[in-house]
Amino acid sequence: MALFDDEPLRPKKVHEIGQDLSLLSVDELRERIEQLKAEVKRLEAELVSKGSSRLAAESLFRR
Question: Nearest to residue 33, comparing CAs of 24, 23, 45, 44?
């Protein structure tokens, strides 16, 4: 929580790579797994999007 109202709230880190997992409950671990799976899907969708853009640009310049 911010000390003053005009201070921006910092987003809570969901997961940090290499973090000690021994202090997390089973439910917390499951939640993090689901969040990470969702992030992987988002990253893969961005890869597809960028690949489509690149292919479109390459086909435009090959003419």
Answer: 24
pTM: 0.62
As a whole number of angstroms, the distance between CA 34 and CA 53 comes to 29
The DSSP code for 4 is S
- Residue 41 tokens read as 């899907």
State the Rg of the chain over Cα. Answer: 20
Residue 27: is its pLDDT beyond 80? yes
Amino acid making up residue 62: R
Instruction: Tell me which H or E stretch contains 17.
Output: none
Could you give the CA distance from residue 51 to residue 54 in angstroms, rounded to a whole number? 5
Q: Tell me if residue 39 falls in helix, strand or coil.
A: helix
- The residue whose two tokens read 């999007």 is 49
